Amino acid sequence: MTQPFLTGRTALVTGASRGIGAATATALARAGAHVILTGRTVGGLEEIEEAIDAAGGTATIAPLDLTEGDGIPRLAAAIVDRWPALDILVLNAAMLGSLSPVSAFDPKELSKVMTLNVSAQAALLGAFDPLVKASKRGRVIGLTSSVGRTPRAYWGMYGASKAAFENLLLSYGEEVRHISETRVAIVDPGATRTRMRARAYPGEDPASVKPPEAVADRIVALLDDDFETGAFIRVE
Description:
Elements: E1 10-13, H1 19-30, E2 34-39, H2 42-54, E3 58-63, H3 71-80, E4 88-91, H4 107-133, E5 139-143, H5 156-176, E6 183-188, H6 195-200, H7 212-223, E7 231-234
Parallel strand pairs: 1-2, 1-4, 2-3, 4-5, 5-6, 6-7
Helix pairs in contact: 1-2, 1-7, 3-4, 4-5
């Protein structure tokens, strides 16, 4: 019997306690990867780990607030003690912030959004760079939003953070392009049934948009492709 194509590989998924992160972690485990689940909600992480285990996959939970100063370096140190390389890094964790005019931004909230959506992502890339480079097929996938490329009224806070995140991630990709096997891609999930979507569109029928599993399946399919750094995928 042919083994799942990600058998023997290790993946780390941020924001894995629910939504797209949880669905992606589950899909990666189903494809054979051992998945490290990170997120702030311990109960949610445990539920996903149990579901993965019940389906015959393997996972490790690592509860973590990405905005804590030393949390990311501690996680990297714990992982390097157990695994020689990190084959897949999925940067999914993010926060929406308030939908408001730019002129009405709360500076403290803006700082909080930028800390998680940009600064923490840079810290993750820095901390896990050696482990990703150690993989023979290192892959980094970042989740973005269309508002990062197409400005929309009242979405400036989230949109600016995603524009910065995309630039950060693609810059990293160019830096490692010729010195490792690491490749970087960006995925725009489009309209998806998540808690963030429900907050942004409170009157929308959740059944009218695709489930997180559709995005997760596209991410796994992308990992089966020999894509080049800079690949951009929008899931319709």
